[in-house]
Amino acid sequence: MLSNIGIPGLILILVLALIIFGPKKLPEIGRAFGQTLREFKKSTRELTSDVMEEFEDDDKKKTVK
């Protein structure tokens, strides 16, 4: 979906965001978005590692029996 936007579309989105939020608020919004994305990636990574550990524990239990 996002691969069809292209450079002109991104420029249009940036200009609209600049008009709507203003030049002072835009960096704050970007920073907040970056922090949210970072936390989401961290949570996803933790969840994935927890699930993988459970699978490994189940495999160990099956091989011990």
Automatic annotation (TrEMBL):
* Cellular localisation: Cell membrane; Membrane
Residues passing through the membrane, by range: 6-23
Topology within the bilayer? Single-pass membrane protein
Please provide the record's keywords in A-Z order.
Answer: Cell membrane, Membrane, Protein transport, Translocation, Transmembrane, Transmembrane helix, Transport
Task: Give the primary localization class.
Answer: membrane
Against Pfam families, the record matches this protein to: TatA_B_E
Q: Which InterPro entries match?
A: TatA/B/E (IPR003369), TatA/E (IPR006312)
Describe the function of this protein: Part of the twin-arginine translocation (Tat) system that transports large folded proteins containing a characteristic twin-arginine motif in their signal peptide across membranes. TatA could form the protein-conducting channel of the Tat system.
What subunit structure does UniProt give?
A: Forms a complex with TatC.
The family assignment reads: Belongs to the TatA/E family.
Q: What is this protein called?
A: Sec-independent protein translocase protein TatA
- Source organism (scientific name): Cytobacillus eiseniae
The UniProt gene name for this protein comes to tatA
